[in-house]
């Protein structure tokens, strides 16, 4: 009898999606709710939790180190958006050009960095941006007569290293996104434009850019998310979560410091909730502005 | 005709320069793996191709030295294989449920799939950490595999793929007397094979390079994965560069080999999310 029930067409779909429901409830809904609950408590691993109301949030609002972390994450996100959207788009259009030699070779080489783990890439960049005269970047600057720079000790120079690392790893991946977007644009459009006497620049701004909009929105959305949630890149560059004067501290880095390193889980949970709010607000605004919520189809 | 050749040369030159810039870090780590760690500490990571200091000592140490590198390496291989296999099977099953049936709560559940993709995983780190602790799963691979076993992006991709498969196959299966599960296992799974390749690559890459969560969960050295092991070579008290650099270099090789062999699937897998559906 039970077997018949389990095998009926009414029940089968629920059996199929059951693993998702379980994982969703146990590893997503529960942690999210408990994170929310924890943010109103004083929680220390191995001790009874204490209800403290909105104390964690009020403390957060006057926590200058937290604001430093928010600013760092925000600046990092904006810089990566400014580099990792226009350049990959331009590269994709150029590499897609019918006059391009060795297209496949270049596509592969651009993609190579994405194959490395953050740990390996971070280690390489940490050494490349080393402060010695002979370290890669300093030795190149030396050719132009620039004195060795202590990259990872300064705010601006530290961010140059951080953004260089991100650009190196993601340039090729974003270019591939734009290339797959370009594939969906029919050649007829360009031919028609040529007949009307449009210049290459006009074709780019009037046809390519508007039709790449869905791809751009996708890349924008994941880049905002990745930018705000960045942590390990900074951890690898500064070999730990403690950079001089917190120049490399990010929101997730602060969450990690408070939660794992200082066993201050309630406060860290509040950091997490604020990050969730920031991410949601920025992404929903961005999606609303780009008209993603308008009825389609 | 002349103008075209000029464009070709300019484009090619431009991309060659950008490509060289991108490949410099690989070149630097490759030559550094042939130099003594001491050289690196004294002169920094650079591009000097100096045969007088280059030798195979690091590689000899990598393969014969007293360290846990290959334990980590095989842990990573094992974890990646198990994680990819389980995630693909579970996610494909869930995706089939979403694609083949109409049922109450379907739309709501699918919005939940999309929701997972919208929220940074990092926010859940601490509650997941305490949950793992309470479940007694600390320092186990289950704690790494379970939370992602029904991967949202993977489910999404499989559902897209399944929507292109004609429903008549399912109807025909029912006429032939196959059970609901028999239809999935015998008729649908075989047709899904091509989509498995792209998702295996995507999940495999993520799993092979996964760092933060495993780093928080795993505590004993013999269970470390490669990224964690490499990270522990960097200490505040001096770095084990002899092993770190050659180990980093060697860790790129297997995935590079896979990439060169299955390039198309890598690109399909990486761009799967951007396909509008």
UniProtKB/TrEMBL annotation, chain A:
The chain crosses the membrane at residues 12-30, 75-97, 109-129, 156-179, 216-238, 265-285. InterPro entries: ABC_transporter_permease, MetI-like, MetI-like_sf. Residues 70-286 form the ABC transmembrane type-1 domain. The keyword Membrane applies. It is a multi-pass membrane protein. Signal peptide: none annotated. Its main location: membrane. Keywords: Cell membrane, Membrane, Transmembrane, Transmembrane helix, Transport. It is found in: Cell membrane. CDD domains: TM_PBP2. The keyword Cell division does not apply. It holds the Pfam family BPD_transp_1. Belongs to the binding-protein-dependent transport system permease family. PANTHER family: ABC TRANSPORTER PERMEASE PROTEIN (PTHR30193), INNER MEMBRANE ABC TRANSPORTER PERMEASE PROTEIN YCJO (PTHR30193:SF37). This is ABC transporter permease subunit. It comes from Paenibacillus phytohabitans. The lineage of its organism: Bacteria, Bacillati, Bacillota, Bacilli, Bacillales.
UniProtKB/TrEMBL annotation, chain B:
It is a multi-pass membrane protein. SUPFAM superfamilies: MetI-like. The keyword Lyase does not apply. The chain crosses the membrane at residues 9-34, 72-96, 108-129, 141-162, 183-202, 243-262. Its main location: membrane. Pfam families: BPD_transp_1. Belongs to the binding-protein-dependent transport system permease family. This is ABC transporter permease subunit. It comes from Paenibacillus phytohabitans.
